[in-house]
């Protein structure tokens, strides 16, 4: 197994690791005092898409202290912002397009463009975030759809990395690229190779 240590501003995270699941930043069935007892190896997951509305990036930006302070996370908590909620599929109601990912969140349907997604990342100020991905939700997706998924995700990866500093994402925040391609080993390999070739080291 591949093992490692991700050193972040607010703490470190061993890999592989189990992250504390949250719904819109709130750990389910866990009070802040219990979360504090999980130190020094606590990693918390939040879904960027859930912060596109109510509160939106503008509200979080006006708060100005990022999700660590907004969610009152204990000192030393590593915050990982992912591109979807692992317990529910926000995708699938409508197809994704070149404009972005269509997702169904608590506020209804939204199209998450690279710009909109990265504005939420900048406002959240996580330790790590996963870049936007054209994820395939159908188990029997056709080869052409897998190819489109990889091509689109690589394009969005470039957009996310370009927006990283332009949108004001803090320098300490690290980006994790999503490997697209669903069940196609060939397309997943292409995604990883082209990502590396594009300078995503």
Automatic annotation (TrEMBL):
InterPro entries: Queuine_tRNA-ribosyltrfase (IPR050852), TGT-like_sf (IPR036511), tRNA_ribo_trans-like (IPR002616). Residues 1-192 form the tRNA-guanine(15) transglycosylase-like domain. It comes from Chlamydomonas leiostraca. GO terms for biological process: tRNA modification. This is tRNA-guanine(15) transglycosylase-like domain-containing protein. It comes from the Eukaryota.
